[in-house]
Queue: 2 jobs
Job 1
Amino acid sequence: MASEKLKAAMAAEGEDMEMDMSSMIDLVFLLLIFFMVSSHLIIVKIDKRVKPPTAKNAQVAKNATGRVVVNVLEDGTIWGQDELELTSDESITDYVDQAFQMNRENGIETRLNLRADEGVDTRIIKKVVKAAGDAGVTEVIFGSYVVER
């Protein structure tokens, strides 16, 4: 009965009923900004100077959290992800340990992501893995290109 009175009143005035969408649009933008600010972007910078080897059984990792990226160039120099040259075993251990401590505070397991050039001597790779182990890292991810099967 009330709806009939409303229809009659609207018909008499000759106006169409319209919904104000501005508050809904404001809400959508606020939610968009909230999710953009609260999300954590994980950015792994890839050093273009490193040419990793190819592997038939290589897999793309699904989870990139907790990675400490160390790049080993063809000439044997060792670089951190933030363009910091690591010249000694102690500097590698310190670099990995900083990330290890920060990840431990956030409850994240730390993994070494070792990106070595395909022409690097394996003794250098062993040195980096040992230094990371001295910092407390127990998992190593070796970077390689995936070959089509």
Job 2
Amino acid sequence: MTTSSSMCSFRESALQAFDNACSAFAEKENMFQVATNTGINTTLLRNKLNPSQPHRLTVEDLILITKESNNYCIVNSLLLRLDMVGAKLDLQSSEETLVKRALENSMFAGDLSRLALENAGETRLSRRKRNELLERAHQSVSNLVLLMNDLENKTSGVAPFLSMATDFVITNGAPGLV
């Protein structure tokens, strides 16, 4: 009986997270433009994103609207229910210095800290604040993945290691040599 109860509550919370993500997507995006560019009927797309309607998004619809809008909130909500986190990577981004990536990480951490402090006394977050926090957190995760990728690329030989050491010395000075 306990297993049945917990499965039911899991389904409820998963469905609620998905519905919230669909609502957030519909609020943020220009639905007419997304529907037109993906070839989905505008009214049907609005209905599929509305939790009170019987229509549901198909996997193909989800992929189309996500790629078109570059808004991953629905996909992220599904991954979170699977205890996973997704990170969107900018495949056109160039390899940056480790210092720049680390500073960007500090910037994202600072934004998250600021938002957390602004809402510290709140017992509940508004949907807008929650979505803003999630967006910043996902940006931070993406930056960390790029940082890890840059680290792997820079440490695959002697020359990259020397480049990384030079970055460190330029940034921090030469400890013990002064």
